[in-house]
Design brief:
Elements lengths: L1 E3 L5 H12 L7 E5 L6 H5 L3 E4 L5 H8 L4 E4 L6 H18 L3 E7 L10 H17 L3 E6 L6 H5 L3 H4 L1 E2 L6 E2 L4 H13 L6 E5 L5 E2 H12 L5 E2 L1
Parallel strand pairs: 1-2, 1-4, 2-3, 4-5, 5-6, 6-9, 7-11
Antiparallel strand pairs: 8-10
Helix pairs in contact: 1-8, 3-4, 4-5
Length: about 230
C-alpha cells in the first residue's frame, strides 16, 4: 500500500495522478487528508481516504497502519511548526511499521549563505532526523516549481517588468508534474532505499534570462530590476 500525504495539494494530487497513469490500482493508493470535504475528487478516482493531521500523532499512527511506502509531502503550515510536524509523521510511520519513507525536501547549494536558508532549514532538520531513525528513506531534493514563476514575476509584468532581488543567480526550475513523476517512479520501482536525489531541470535560468524569454514571447521588451 502506498500512502500520499498532502493529497489535496498540488504535488500530492499530481503524484497520485502519476501513480494512476503508471498503472497502480486506485485501491492500492491511500490519500491522507485533513478535511474530508476536500477529497471528493480523490474519492471519485477510487482511492482510499484517511484522515490525519501532522499535529495529531495518533491520527497519523492510525492512518499509517498497513502502509508499505509513505510519500511524506513537506508541511505547508507555519514555518516554525514544520519540523515538529515532520517528526510526528516520521515517528508515527516508525511506530506503524512503514517500510519506506519518501520525503519531499528542497535542493539548495549552500544553506548557510542563501537568503532562503532560514526559511527552509526545517528541511535539513527533517532529513537528519529521518536518516537517524533507521527506516529506509529517500530524499527528493526538489528545486523551485516552474509553476511558481507567474506568481514570482507578478500580474503586471508586461508593464512593470520583473522586480526580484535575485541578482544573476540561476535556478533549475521544474514543473510540479515532473516532480510528481519522479515521486511515482521512486514509489513504484526498486532500489531507491537510502538514496538522495536532486530533482531539477538540466538547465538553470536567471530572472534576467526569464525576462528575455518573455520579451521574445510577448514581443515587448521586459526589464529585469534587481
Amino acid at each position: 500500500m502506498i500512502l500520499v500525504t498532502g493529497a489535496t495539494g498540488n504535488l500530492g494530487k499530481a503524484t497520485i495522478d502519476s501513480l494512476l497513469n503508471r498503472g497502480i490500482a486506485p485501491n492500492n493508493i491511500t490519500a491522507l487528508v485533513r478535511d474530508e470535504s476536500k477529497a471528493a475528487e480523490l474519492k471519485s478516482k477510487g482511492l482510499q481516504i484517511k484522515l490525519g493531521d501532522y499535529q495529531d500523532l495518533e491520527s497519523l499512527k492510525s492512518a499509517f497502519r498497513g502502509v508499505d511506502k509513505l510519500l511524506l509531502v513537506s508541511s505547508s503550515s507555519d514555518i516554525g511548526k514544520r519540523f515538529e510536524q515532520h517528526k510526528n509523521a516520521i515517528n508515527a510511520a516508525n511506530e506503524s511499521g512503514v517500510g519506506h519513507i519518501i520525503y519531499t525536501s528542497f535542493d539548495m547549494k549552500n544553506l548557510q549563505q542563501s537568503i532562503m536558508g532560514g526559511e527552509v532549514r526545517y528541511h535539513a532538520y527533517t532529513a537528519d532526523y529521518l536518516r537517524q531513525t533507521g527506516i529506509p528513506y529517500t530524499l527528493m531534493n526538489n528545486t523551485m516549481y516552474a509553476d511558481m514563476i507567474p506568481f514570482l514575476v507578478g500580474k503586471d509584468i508586461l508593464n512593470n517588468g520583473i522586480s526580484i532581488p535575485a541578482g544573476d543567480g540561476k535556478t533549475p526550475f521544474l514543473p510540479i508534474s515532473e516532480m510528481a513523476e519522479a515521486n511515482a517512479v521512486v514509489l513504484t520501482t526498486p532500489g531507491h532505499e537510502n538514496k538522495e536525489y536532486i530533482i531539477a531541470s538540466e538547465t538553470a535560468f536567471s530572472f534576467a534570462e526569464i525576462a528575455d524569454l518573455l520579451s521574445d514571447i510577448s514581443g515587448k521588451t521586459l526589464a529585469y530590476h534587481q
